[in-house]
Amino acid sequence: MKSDIRVCSAWRDAHDRPVYTLSTDCPECGADAVNSAPAPFDPEDSYGEYRRALKRRNR
């Protein structure tokens, strides 16, 4: 799942601070806008079964 909020991919070079937008390109410099945050979890978590079992055991 991706966030709707994007940040300019070249903000470190072209801007003083991050430029956030909802479009696919930066409104100030025209560079591509990328997803502003990584995914909170991986749906193919290979250790998820063990992590959940440990959580249930420690309750």
From TrEMBL:
Q: Which is one GO molecular function term here?
A: snoRNA binding
Q: Where is this region: Disordered?
A: 35-59
Cite a single GO BP annotation. pseudouridine synthesis
GO cellular component terms, A-Z? ribonucleoprotein complex
Keywords from UniProt, A to Z, are: Ribonucleoprotein, Ribosome biogenesis, rRNA processing
The UniProt entry, under HAMAP family, shows: Nop10 (MF_00803)
From the Swiss-Prot or TrEMBL record, give the protein name.
Ribosome biogenesis protein Nop10
Encoding gene per record: nop10
